[in-house]
Amino acid sequence: METIAEPSGIFPKLNVEEEPELSVTEVESMCMNCQENGITRLLLTQIPFYKEVVIMSFSCDHCGFENNEIQPGGEIAPKGVEIRTEIVTARDLNRRVVKSDFSSIRIEELDFEIPAQSQKGEVTTVEGIIDRVIRGLDQDQPVRQIQHPEAAEQIDAFIASLQALKDLERPFTLTIKDISGNSFVENPNAPHKDPATTISYFQRTKDQNHLLGIFTHEEVGSDEPKSVVEESVQLETVPEEVDSLLKPIRAGAWTLEELQGEVLKFQTNCPECAAACDTNMKITTIPHFKEVVIMATVCDNCGLRTNEVKPGGGIEEQGVKIEVTVRGRIDFSRDVLKSECCSLHIRELDCEVGAGALGGRFTTIEGLLTAMREQLVESTGMFMDSNDAETKERMDKFFGQLDVAIAGQKQLTIVMDDPTGNSYVQSLNDDGTPDTALRIIRYHRSYEQNEELGLNDMKTENYGEEKINEKAEVDES
Q: How many Å separate Cα 120 from the centre of its chain?
């Protein structure tokens, strides 16, 4: 009888409790310390916060030299990230840190910065970062004290300053800026908000994209610029049998009515196992709200099922804050549309979930609570086996309260804050009377919110006047 092997992904999940048999690749390589042959072990796996990773471990039996590295194996995040953390207590020194090759680290109080790509990516702690800097500065001090005594004296003074920070003689600020967006600093108060950490995201510049190997189609194409007519002719001459992901739609080929009633399908890769799968996309209308685009992905290899929602229209003029009181099973059936920019807060549990954590989705109140629990379990599972007793007790207590709420035995107040105004919660009263358990507040966005959404530099009216004026000035000169 023939046995069929179970499908497995390229990057299996790292699970300490189940201890799966992960395939480790061993490669014989030269030791950089003694130039003899050692063994490099490669492990492709998936851990929370860092998506898919390649863990590399080198050991040499001749001289005992060891080296560990970690590199991202998945796709680069759409935005860069800047994490600013205040280090005050010994607990802050033990914060776990995941940093990539493109992370720059800065200590504000010493005006000290570790440039990007000067160190390999690693999983460490705040104290480990300082220790690595001290070891790097101290390793050549004996030679430097003979050849350059003045420079050696200055370095000794700086090492003493680093040691003072390590001993917490005064608080200091650690800033990690990563253009790839794949760095992380642990929150010791999880699932509650971290008051000592500020996380901000930014759009990469053109040069930063090139540093990551990201280029547009125009940049990798021909150096000679093409006119609009030439590009349109080239699109028309593309044969129908060419298997491309995006094909130009001829004018009049799809009307709005046909597009709303059609389920479009395109090929993509599974976000869990990277296997080829299909994504279905459909435009639909939510009653009393607006048009949305629903995308669903089903992977036959690992069984993953995901759904994602994109607003069919643009950003609303005002943001929206929705407060819904979950009294029990009666409110679990409410339809919920959460956009990518919507953050969640549960007052009774003092739990806050950022805007990008759950993504955009169309679900119910029960599905939203379940997704939040799964996200928190996944996000805290990376360091769960090495957490202290206090952290484990706090997390167990929180998950117990959340499980009681999911079972419908605890009243909750869920606050959804969406600066784009593209989120929605269904009212249980179809007769038009107010729903006492649902409160909707609309507000004007702040300058910082508009800046994050890219609205401050956006011009939607008379945007051609500036080019016309510039052209007129050039002609006059």
A: 20
| Main-chain phi, psi angles of 467, to 5 degrees | -65, -40
Is 33 strand, coil or helix?
coil
Compare 89 and 46 and report the one with higher pLDDT: 89
pTM higher than 0.85: no
Burial class (CB in 10 A: 0-12, 13-18, 19+), 87: buried
Helices vs strands, H then E, count in the chain = 13, 24
Give me the mean pLDDT over the 287-310 stretch: 78
Q: How many angstroms separate the Cα of 240 from the Cα of each of 27, 99, 246, 316?
A: 46, 45, 12, 38
DSSP-assigned letters across all residues of 409-442: -S-EEEEEEETTS--EE--S-TTS---TTEEEEE
Spell out the alpha helix ranges (H) of 262-388.
355-358, 365-380
Cis amide leading into 191 (omega within 30): yes
CB contact set of 20 (below 8 Å; sequence gap of 6+): 12, 13
Question: Is 215 in a helix, a strand, or coil?
Answer: coil
Beta-carbon contacts of residue 169 (< 8 Å; ≥ 6 apart): none
Q: Are 371 and 344 in contact (CB under 8 A)?
A: no
Angle between helices 389-406 and 365-380 (to 10 degrees): 170
| pLDDT tens, residue by residue, 247-268 | 555 555 555 555 556 778 888 8
Question: Coil, helix or strand for 123?
Answer: strand
Q: Which of 393, 165, 152, 422 is nearest to 291 (CA)?
A: 422
Residue that the structure tokens 């998950």 belong to: 399
The CA radius of gyration of the chain, in Å to the nearest whole number, is 27
Highest average pLDDT, of 103-107, 264-268, 370-374, 464-468, comes from 103-107
CA distance 376 to 304: 18
Nearest to 349 by CA among 404, 393, 416: 404
- Return the amino acid letter for 345: H
Buried b (16+ CB within 10 A) or exposed e, 387-412: beeebeebbeebeebbeebbeeebeb
Residue 141 three-state SS: helix
Distances (CA, A) of 263 to 260, 278, 291: 8, 12, 15
Decide: helix, strand or coil at residue 260: helix
368 within 8 A of 336, measured Cβ to Cβ: yes
CB count, 10 Å around CB of 211? 15
The encoded tokens of residue 70 equal: 């970690």
